[in-house]
């Protein structure tokens, strides 16, 4: 008796229903035979070539990633391209790939709950409802602290990445109500303002939306923290792996167990930063 890919897919779809994904998203099973046995599952944020090789070396039968491999259409799977090489590696090595993306963002617990926990939030609630699903989270710190203290604590809770944290706001500003959105979130500024958050933690913040948001705030809240796309979403992996492992084991008496592994690879694309300035002091000078 063994656990099949179909068994694990049922567990994943129960935890992260595909119908809760945003309309533009591509989630679910990407490769694999539903009848194939699954003994080891490898969890990662990105389905990169290096992650697939890591899974192969571990003897994994299934890779579960947060980000899709095929979000947009492709016209070739030749190994001369990265997508084709990844698909070929999966197929040749009998490794299945499953994606839980925005359906994992909106899940409870999901990606944003893991980020809210890293921020130390209590009284957590959805930041907004989009396409009928709760996106992001907003909650309270147990006590007020400065923006510098909060970001230092968050930095310590996140996996290290070369970009660190980018912060828009005075270091000595007092903050307590915090909104979070794992991954790219600069399309949520209206919801953040409506939530009354003092600070918003997300990633991939672009120059023009941030500049406009800070101008509109007139120097006050909400302050902004770009904590990195990979770092903010990788927090989800350990909890997801534990939930899948437990659900498979709870499949009934004699149900075979599966091993789970968390990728040790940092798939943040940046390698180093040159010339980062320290926080501005009183009066805006550095």
General shape: globular
Task: List the helices and strands in order.
Answer: HEEHEHEHHEEHEEHEHEHHE
Main β-sheet: number of strands, strand sense, barrel status? 6 strands, mixed
Low-confidence sequence ranges = none
Q: What number is the mean pLDDT?
A: 94
What is the β-strand count?
Answer: 11
Broad CATH class of the largest domain: Alpha Beta
Name the structural class: alpha/beta
Please give the count of helices: 10
Give the number of domains.
Answer: 2
Strand content: 15-25%
The radius of gyration is 20 Å
Helix content: 25-40%
**Widest sheet: strand order?**
5-6-8-9-10-7
Family: Belongs to the GTP cyclohydrolase I type 2/NIF3 family.
GO molecular function: metal ion binding
Organism: Pedococcus bigeumensis
Protein name: GTP cyclohydrolase 1 type 2 homolog
Describe the model.
The chain is of the alpha/beta class and 286 residues long. The protein has two domains: 5-104 and 233-262, NIF3 (NGG1p interacting factor 3)-like (Udp-n-acetylmuramoylalanyl-d-glutamate--2,6- Diaminopimelate Ligase, Chain: A, domain 1), CATH 3.40.1390; 108-227, NIF3 (NGG1p interacting factor 3)-like (Udp-n-acetylmuramoylalanyl-d-glutamate--2,6- Diaminopimelate Ligase, Chain: A, domain 1), CATH 3.40.1390. The protein is 33% helix and 24% strand. It is built from ten helices and eleven strands. The chain has helices spanning 5-15, 49-58, 82-92, 102-106, 111-119, 147-157, 189-195, 207-217, 229-234, 236-249; strands at 28-31, 40-44, 62-65, 96-99, 121-130, 133-146, 166-168, 174-184, 199-203, 223-226, 259-262. The protein has a six-stranded mixed beta sheet with strand order 5-6-8-9-10-7, with helices on both faces. The chain has a five-stranded mixed beta sheet with strand order 1-4-3-2-11, sandwiched between helices. Strand 8, helix 7 and strand 9 form a beta-alpha-beta unit. Helix 1 crosses helix 10 (236-249). The longest helix has 14 residues, at 236-249. The mean pLDDT is 94.
